[in-house]
Amino acid sequence: MSQLPIMPGAHIGILGGGQLGRMMALAGSHMGYRFTVLDPSEDAPCAQVANEHIQAAFDDKHAASLLASKVDVITYEFENIDANMVEHLQQHALVPQGSELLHTTQHRWREKESLVKAGVSVAPYREITMLSQLKSAIEELGTPSVLKTASGGYDGKGQVVIHDADECEAAFSKLIVMNQQLVLEQFIDYEQEISVIVARNKAGECKVFPVAENIHVDNILHCTIVPARISQEMTKKAENVALRIAQSFQLCGLLAVEMFVGRDGEIYVNELAPRPHNSGHFTMEACATSQFEQHIRAVCNLKLGATDLLTPVVMVNILGEHVDTVQDWMNKKESIPSGIIQKIHFYGKTEKKPKRKMGHLNLLSEQADLALQWIEESRIWTTQSKVYQQQN
Ligand SMILES: Nc1ncnc2c1ncn2[C@@H]1O[C@H](COP(=O)(O)OP(=O)(O)O)[C@@H](O)[C@H]1O
Ligand SMILES: [Mg+2]
Predict the structure, then answer these.
(1) Is 194 in the pocket of ligand 1 (CB under 6 A)?
(2) Ligand 1 proximity of 269 Cβ (cutoff 6 Å)
(3) Beta bridge partners of 213
């Protein structure tokens, strides 16, 4: 495959038209690239900002070939794309990220196996297809443990925590109808959940973004705090884990590495996402280069941008149920205390379904505590206020 950089002016195709594609296209447009997006829905967030939209299903080979004929390079914005489709595209166009990493990260068995091969720690786990296996795995790994479907899960869907051995049957029957392959993981007693986003281009240049601390509510990312409130030693360790994975996987593009900082001082890799990630939205205003620009740079084999943190930041997600209060607040005079600069992003979605990711707010402040306090006092995220009491 060509090692040549694909320079601004070139045409980039994106598979998937959600908010990640939208922010990719916005960042790439600033750099002078043109975009065509393939997505089945008429008003997809990315279609609103791309130069062209091919409205078709992701498994429509004719539409994929049309996309390939129009663009110089193709990328994707979500990981549940059929690897066969990527292989089909590779016959007609440049797809620098390839299909292998996609294939690996689509299945927890493969993902864990390759993480172990890369020499990083994961929670002790067992592959499960039968109830008898689950029962003996629970004896070996103990409780609590978490049973997950091997593929197709997101935002905590397709998971059951097993607190006691007698819960095995119920957990197994709930998940096995969703997926014939499951994984049991020991529940990690963690101090923090963190993520590191790493980029690598075809030339082998590799860069990590600052380590992000993530707080989930109902298994959905609620906010990200950067710098993460962990020791320097742990920060270094987490960066090295991400770099090691990027090298081992011969990454091209962006990879988000979700990790647990265990109370035992160990870092455990939870899961991978081969694309820009919600926990990297803080980079848009808080870093020298955003994760979206970095992704474009990596895929186009440009020199990677600097990842320095320009200011501490707290990113908070705006879900469907928060939109009205956030928009009321935007028009109020007493909007935000001094010492915090707020930057708002909406993704152009019209339907405000509960739990749907509609936008996010980056709060830039020398003091993360001040931003966290404001999130609580604003009462926009009222149901989640107890989170801060636990964490602080
Ligand atoms: N082995 C584990 N130990 C402790 N917590 C876990 C474990 N696995 C998952 N979790 C919790 O559940 C959340 C969702 O799990 P994850 O595997 O990341 O699935 P998803 O695809 O839904 O993001 C994690 O962010 C973490 O809070
Ligand atoms: Mg996750």
Answers:
(1) no
(2) no
(3) 194, 225
CB 258 less than 6 A from any atom of ligand 1: yes
Residues of the chain within CATH 3.40.50.20 domain(s) are 11-95
State yes or no: cis peptide before 227, omega within 30 of 0.
yes
Which atom of ligand 1 lies closest to the CA of 190? 4
Q: How far is the CA of 183 from the centre of ligand 2 (A)?
A: 15
Phi, psi of 31 (to 5 degrees): -85, -5
* CATH H-level, domain 124-186: superfamily: ATP-grasp fold, A domain (3.30.1490.20)
Fold entry, domain 11-95: Rossmann fold (3.40.50)
Which of these, 132, 185, 192, lies nearest to 160 by C-alpha position?
185
- Kindly report the protein residue whose alpha carbon is nearest to atom 16 of ligand 1: 156
Would the CA dihedral through 275, 375, 340, 312 be positive or negative? negative
pLDDT, one tens digit for every residue, the chain (392 residues): 457 899 999 999 999 999 999 999 999 999 999 999 999 999 999 999 999 999 999 999 999 999 999 999 999 998 888 878 888 899 889 999 999 999 999 999 999 999 999 999 999 999 999 999 999 999 999 999 999 999 988 888 999 999 999 999 999 999 999 999 999 999 999 999 999 999 999 999 999 999 999 999 988 999 999 999 999 999 999 999 999 999 999 999 999 999 999 999 999 999 999 999 999 999 999 999 999 999 999 999 999 999 999 999 999 999 999 999 999 988 887 678 899 999 999 999 999 999 999 999 999 999 999 999 999 998 899 765 455 544 44
Asked whether 111 lines ligand 1 (CB < 6 A), one says: no
218 within ligand 1 shell (Cβ under 6 A)? no
Q: Which CATH number fits domain 190-391: 3.90.1170.40, 3.40.30.10, 3.40.50.620, 3.30.470.20?
A: 3.30.470.20
From the list 29, 21, 23, the residue with the least C-alpha distance to 284 is 23
CA distance 181 to 158: 11
Task: Tokens for 43, please give them.
Answer: 């008003």
CATH 3.30.470.20 in the chain is located at: 190-391
Phi, psi of 154 (to 5 degrees): -160, 160
